Amino acid sequence: MRHLSYPPKPRPGDRVAVVSLSSPGPALFPHVYELGLRRLREEFDLVPVEYPTTRAPRADPRDRARDLVAAFADPTVRAVLATVGGEDLITVTPHLDDAVLRADPKPFFGYSDNTNLLHHLFQLGVVAYHGGSVLVHLGRPGALHPLTADSLRAALFTSGWYDLTPADEWSDQPNDWQDPASLAVPPVMFPGQGWHWQGPARVVEGPAWGGNLEILHWLLAAGRVGPDADLTGCVLVIETSEELPGATEVYRILRNLGERGLLARFGAVLVGRAKAWDFARPLTGAAKQQHLDEQRAAVTRALGEYAPDAVVVFDVDLGHTDPQLIIPYGGTVRVDAPGRRISVRY
């Protein structure tokens, strides 16, 4: 089992880098971005530091890599937050200077396409943080969700154990960012139904690894994952994006991980609440529930075939969900099936 190093935490008043490593969200939706920055200042007492590509509409991958390296090289910057996800960060990581990232490791927060960098830091032996988005979660319409705010604050500033909490309400239907007036209206929310547990009644503890399932598949196809032994004893964390991959695709991705021998290495699996709505596919009612049920069945089938002894928890509020709980990527996660409890060490 790998043991990664936790980078030092920022303190209130510190400077933190805000970077756009993939999608140019701040250039497209400046009003949402500015709201996220204001909350970073006012609610977390952190000073955001921008870079040449943070608001650039079409930045070269080499320039985005240069900005990230500059953030890690600056001793006054004590954490790094991604503005949003995207779809081409896989072209950025080859241009990073790993010696600089190792020399002064800093907490990095991001999810979705940022799985590329989370995994890259994992391979460098540095704990990072799955979650936290300046646009999506800090820029949430109405107000920050209390669970998101509490988890992010704990991950930023504390180093002890933190118990994850099932959400009483949740949403996967964001407001329309193209309408600035929508920022004043909270998103539609649905009643929470808790987590759903499968597998043996035992306690599993290990470093977290995984992220967005589609991005993991890209990383595997690009030969970026390995050696496989580094994942032995890890807790697998998976979630799916607003592209709403179907049950067949989800099963096949997991089957491929199983055929490689990866799934058998995980003693526990945390499955994020599946996103089942997008502006291009606004599923509601029975169609939405069918998507959720079919995706859970696909995950259950694959894990039953390749990791039958794993403890599995569905509908954890991580990834493309609101609220969003922060997972320490490479940090320690404890999955207590008898106690129905998930704890993370930030």
Automatic annotation (TrEMBL):
Q: Sorted alphabetically, which keywords does the UniProt record give?
A: Hydrolase
Keyword Plastid assigned to the entry: answer is: no
Entry-linked Pfam families: Peptidase_S66, Peptidase_S66C
Q: Does the keyword rRNA processing apply?
A: no
**According to the lineage, what is the superkingdom?**
Bacteria
Q: Which InterPro entries match?
A: Carboxypeptidase_A_C_sf, Class_I_gatase-like, LdcA_N, Peptidase_S66_N, Peptidase_S66C, S66_fam
The residues covered by the LD-carboxypeptidase C-terminal domain are: 205-335
Task: Please report the stretch or stretches of sequence annotated as the LD-carboxypeptidase N-terminal domain.
Answer: 16-131
UniProt family annotation: Belongs to the peptidase S66 family.
Concerning PANTHER family, the annotation shows: LD-CARBOXYPEPTIDASE C-TERMINAL DOMAIN-CONTAINING PROTEIN (PTHR30237:SF4), MURAMOYLTETRAPEPTIDE CARBOXYPEPTIDASE (PTHR30237)
Q: Please give the name of this protein.
A: LD-carboxypeptidase
